[in-house]
Design brief:
By secondary structure, this protein is mainly β. The protein contains 6 helices and 28 strands.
């Protein structure tokens, strides 16, 4: 699988917005790959934004959800119950003008549509005394005048989506919240295959990871490292002849000494077509651990971003790395550091020594997202005049993905020796 974009989206709004009722908008979507197949049992990160008055009106609310699709590619959540980054859902003035819901998956814009009242909300607005509350199961509206309305069984509250996970209490990755076993249970000491031809006696270890005993050095040997123009030292690893940095790039200058612009406001970041970098949330601690986030204009600048003798990897070099590590299903796990990622850091062994870290990204329009759970790196692949691409890893699985996105987006960088 080379992409995680969706081509199909279905919105279901069946909630009731009032001071007394539980506040939220049930949302369901069927996620599809570019070839039309559903994204079954896949990690999906959605951002919901509510605009006032028009599709491009004032942003009054924003939140994010980290979800997993079911076997049919369906994801479900409640808008209003996510991780809030702007506004207060309870304070949205629904009665003052139209509201528009803008949805993004990662850095991919899924579109914007006007939010319309459902019949029950319209009924409550016209009832003589209005409604007082909604039952906990969401199937009954209690009116202020003592009457009540039964909501037909289409309510999402009556059919909560299954929570997938390991339901075996003896497993080291047991999930007490799971309602449906997904076959992921791992029993400590059980035999397994970590996919590394250079290890033997593979078992599930005390860290709930499949790992074995190394047979010699295999194909992974330490490199000589490199120092950038700022004096920052990077160690390196040689993987089947390719020598890669083991840390994300953190340089502030091009090779010729010219400074790379930084400190850009959201508006300037979104409009620039020149090289720039950012530090996630402008937090020096994030820079020390995860390095800097560069737009594509910086990584493609002719003055050179990587140290002398090193370069930004091409798409073909990234594909070679993926192949050397066993293919897209397992390569990500072999690249991910066993620390520095949100749990569960699924499949992470770092058996390649690549030590990938999740620096998140900066949106093309400015805000930051997904540090600790997503790692994005630029390659030199230019898909179009406005879009470029590079490899991607998630904390939720061991896959090696590719992401295509706008050139204004800020991604991490790993350099490879010439």
């Amino acid at each position: 699988m080379k992409t995680f974009f969706t081509l199909s989206l279905h919105l279901l709004i069946t909630s009731f917005l009032c001071a007394q009722a539980p506040q939220g908008i049930p949302y369901q979507a069927v996620m599809r790959n570019a070839d039309g197949t559903v994204m079954a049992s896949s990690a999906v990160d959605l951002t919901f934004m509510i605009h006032d008055g028009s599709a491009t009106g004032t942003l009054v609310y924003q939140e994010s959800h980290s979800l997993t699709s079911n076997a049919q590619g369906l994801v479900s959540c409640v808008v209003g119950n996510g991780v809030v980054s702007q506004g207060n859902f309870a304070n949205i003035n629904w009665g003052n003008g139209a509201k528009f819901l803008h949805v993004m998956m990662g850095t991919t814009d899924l579109g914007t549509q006007q939010m319309l009242s459902v019949p029950y909300a319209l009924h409550s607005a016209s009832a003589a005394n209005g409604f007082s509350s909604v039952s906990q199961t969401g199937d009954t509206l209690h009116m202020a005048n003592g009457n009540f309305i039964i909501v037909p069984g289409i309510s999402a509250a009556n059919f909560p989506p299954a929570i997938l996970g390991c339901t075996n209490a003896q497993a080291c990755n047991y999930n007490a919240a799971a309602t449906q076993d997904d076959g992921s249970c791992l029993i400590q000491g059980a035999s397994c295959n970590d996919g590394n031809a250079n290890t033997t006696n593979d078992v599930i270890n005390a860290n709930c990871q499949c790992a074995g005993t190394a047979i010699g050095n295999g194909v992974f040997i330490p490199g000589n490292g490199v120092t950038d123009i700022d004096g920052t030292v990077y160690t390196s690893i040689i993987i089947n002849g390719q020598e890669w940095m083991q840390q994300n790039l953190a340089v502030t200058k091009y090779r010729n000494g010219d400074p790379i612009p930084t400190g850009l406001s959201d508006a300037t970041w979104s409009s620039t077509t020149s090289g720039a970098y950012a530090i996630y949330n402008n937090d020096a601690a994030n820079n020390a651990t995860y390095g800097k986030l560069y737009n594509w204009y910086a990584v493609s600048d002719s003055r050179g971003l990587c140290p002398t003798g090193w370069h930004l990897p091409s798409g073909a070099e990234c594909a070679t790395l993926e192949t050397n590590l066993g293919g897209s299903y397992v390569a990500g796990g072999k690249m991910k550091s066993t620390t520095g990622w949100n749990l569960p850091n699924t499949g992470a062994t770092n058996s390649s020594g690549f030590t990938a870290l999740p620096g998140g990204y900066r949106y093309s329009y400015g805000p930051y997202n997904n540090i600790g759970s997503h790692g994005y790196w630029w390659s030199s692949n230019e898909d179009s005049s406005s879009v470029a691409s590079g490899p991607t890893l998630f904390s939720s699985d061991s896959w090696f993905y590719y992401t295509s996105t706008y050139k204004q987006v800020g991604f991490s960088v790993r350099c490879v020796r010439d």
